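Bumping with the actual sequence this time:
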Amino acid sequence: MNSAQSKDGRVSSPERHAVVVGGSIAGLLAAHVLAAHADRVTVIERDRYPEGTGLRPGVPQSRHPHALLEGGQRALDALLPGFTGELRAAGAPRVGMPADIVQHHAGRWCRRTQASTHVFTGSRQQIENLVRRRVLADPTVTTLESTEVVGLIGDPSRVRGVRVRERGDGAREEERLLEADLVVDASGRGTKAPQWLTAIGADAPHEETIDTGLAYASRTYRDTTGTLDAGTLGLSIVPDPTQVHGALVLPLEDGSHLVTVSGLRGDEPPTDEHEYVVYAKQLPHPLVHDWMREAEPRSRVFGFRRTANVRRRYDLPGRRPAGFLAAGDALCTFNPIYGQGVSIAAMTAVALRDALADARRTPTTRRVQRALLTASRPAWDISAGSDRAMPGATGNALAPRALDRPGAWYLRRVVERVPGDPLVGDAFRRVLSLTAPVSALFAPEVARAVLFGPPVLTPAEPPMSREDPET
């Protein structure tokens, strides 16, 4: 980088410049963290940011459900103090599990006992807009909108910037160079970083994949049946290896509900409006289908099929250039049905912050990249571990190790007891909400219930009200 010279002839230290590829939630939060260590942070975004809470073309999942899990809430509050308070003030629904949801899980209806975890179910664009407003209030962070990265500057030993070009009508075709001391790839599930790295002589990361072929389709409705109210905020049918169709009905900040139905490869839900409702007849209970028939549609049907779990192993040996990191979905992307993406984006940003601030260790590229991968591992263990068992799953990370088999047997017993046993259910939900490690399922009191306690009786029909905590 070039040094700056003042009027009296003195030469200052080189300006420290960081580039973040991708201006979605993961990229914005990475930029926020880097602003504490760089003189200038540039976020390069392919789209032009919408006014307010509009949709961005580069985020096709914006039209589908998003859940901000408790692990993500804690991370966002740590990065942007008061964030969840802002989210609540903006009207984002806060849903208590299992109290506020009528849920069918492992072939049974779940008891609606006291909530042990809460999720925000508002729209993706609402969360992203609040993050963007907070991050871009820092003058250290600037954006290049309608601009795409087409390659890296550097060699196998170090990345020194990116090659960019403008997008859109009237854009110039020529590329230009943008030098940087650090490049963070947060460009999402469709990242081109493996190709960029091989183009400069470095090694692309090994990719682990598990793909169930899950597909889903979503539509916004307004409840006209009186089914959903302050006491019952949503409906859920959880798919599993013996029952592969799923459904979600979740509240949005404008009072409407976002409905998603899902199926596997070869039986994808249609986007035709009539066939979409008919498809819901395949669910194991008519509750959601009947509600959809009576509710008022507020949008067309949108489909989504790119749901594979993909983990890029930048931590493994290879020619890894300094000055390059991968974050968010560009590092590890999960089957969206588990609702982990936004939360892991925030949690990996916290890991980036902590790794850069660790006074005990030099924050080398390899060490920081390992910290980001470690932060994403709990979500990978949940999504990839569950998807391995789904019929028709494909990928190079399917084969379980011999030592995994006893754990799989134990976890099946956990899942069987979640609908009726509050103790087991609470531990299970803390793991899913990314606030407790998987080891919480093996705590002594939980293990006793799982190994020696029979499954607790559950409601025979959908429980349309919460349980009285006194009973």
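The tokens above came from a reply further down the thread. DSSP finds twelve helices and 21 strands in the chain.
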